[in-house]
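Discussion board: Methods & Data

I've been asked by a reviewer to show the raw model output for two of the constructs in my manuscript, not just the figures. I'm not sure how much to include, so I'm pasting the format here to get opinions. Each protein appears as its amino acid sequence followed by a line of discrete structure tokens. Is this the kind of thing reviewers expect to see in a supplement, or should I convert it first? Here is construct A:
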Amino acid sequence: MYIIADNLTITNPDVADAMDRTNPEKIFHLVRQCQAAGAEMIDINSGPLTKQPAEKMTFLVESVRQTTDLPLLLDTSNPMALEAGLKACKGKAVINGFSLEQEKLEHILPLARAFDTDIIGYLLYPNSNVPPDGAERLAVALELFAKCQEAGIDGDRLIIDPVIPPLIWQNGHTQAMEVVQVIRTLPDLLGFPVKTIAGISNLTSGRGHQNRKPVFEQCYTAILAEAGLSMALINVFHHGTIAAIRACNILMSDKVFSWL
């Protein structure tokens, strides 16, 4: 399971300030911190970027690229910003992402073929609502796969995000376990080793007992690892969860075990 830092987001005041002032120093510092904490990939979440989308996304990508050569995920709903970001990193990034929403099928999905990149597909209805159970999620997965084929994108370019629900939802804990079953089922459903990604931090978002949240996050991460999750999008400063992912990777490896 790869560790992807979700810390570089427009909701982070340091990132927002860096973009407002076009000063990359805070981004340099944040990326170095993420890499030191164990990040193996960096998600750049710029938000919709309604003003100067191409310029701002180019600034973000180039700032990160000056600091690290880790693989990048570009997370924006603005196709103009996304295209600029892909050009800035010469296409060597993952598009994060698309859904069955018509605008994204028309403007986001084609960029994956144009730049020959992987693309994350969210198991959401066209209205962006979350399916109520595993069966509905799998039905959406089939539609996403079909849309990729129609767009001329190879199935192995698709990375599926089953969308982890917050525990505080009325049926959050049961939906969370449905997500686990979806990850287990996808390879048989689509007929190849499907890559999957999940936003681990979603599980404990919202109100709740702060001291208990890390325990649920770490336990759920272990369950996802056993189910075969490929990539974990996570706050890499949740050090206990990062340690849990690393332990899971060791336990599931075919290499000879060592405490070193």
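Construct B, same format:
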Amino acid sequence: MMQNRRFVLIVALICFLVMIPLAAKGVKEAVAEAESQQLTVEMAVMQGPSGFGSVGLQENDGKINENTTIKIQVYPSPNEVIARLANGELDIAALPTNVAANLYAKGVPVKVAAITGEGMLMFLTTDSSISDLSDLEQRKINIPGAGGTPDQMTRILVSALGFDPEVDVELDYSIASPAQLAQMLIAQKIELAVLPEPFVSMATQANASVFPLLDMQALWSALTGTGNYPMTVVVVSDKFVAKNGNRLPVIMDAIRDSVLWVNENPVEAGVKIEEAGIMKAAMATPAIPRCNLVFKTATEGYEAMDTYLKILYGFDYSSIGGSVPDESFYLAY
């Protein structure tokens, strides 16, 4: 009886050991089959510098390898992108960092995969009598719209300089368009403004009387010790990760290569940026070197993002959806 039991156990063990490589082989075959299927990735970017880094993906009609194509759609503002992410129409999107945090806080199933753009804001002035930051007191600062990154960073940094943004300076949002605000500077109808690229380059090149007063990135770096702040991130839907997570490294490598190509080839990139409907080449090309286009994985950029979002929360918690995202907001791949 004992010998029979021992025989049965030996047979069972042999069968188990045989099944392990068979099961592993089955998994490998399933993965290989999934990777061999044609996949079109729906990606959204916005008009403006946040979309610049994506245009290298348009080579070969978006085909990044024999089985994967990235289809890029360009939108004028985050609102349409947010709606399409929320209803599952998009797989990937480039968004302002605080907008991504807001989505996450509201339960939209997305994760941050990478940083693709860092800060590029400047205080510009047409008043040569302003020579020191203390000269900002009781001055009007024009900002392109309330609640966006230029507004948030102005309030944070003005406060860090010792001013009360509600009392010691006047923040004027009456000109919401950065292009129009740049034109007002060029015409010297306003004296002080905060602008992002490419409008900084546009204003300073058009009129020598417009000059930078303060590099907001340098001040942020000095205050926080974290280097530049993450202005644009790439988010990926949870649904896409669940179904196609095995392809994510290839897709992110393609985005990295695209950003690198844009930085190294501003003239050619400017043409593609215009063809994509993101911005006119005449504005994009000279601004690319100053747009701080980067590629950092969420893991590489975690500290900078976490610091940035914590500071935004402390200054205005509603700007990131009421809470600082936890570590599950950051996608490792």
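Answer (T.O., handling editor elsewhere):
This is acceptable in a supplement if you add a one-line summary per construct. For B, something like: Residues 2-36 form the longest helix (35 residues).
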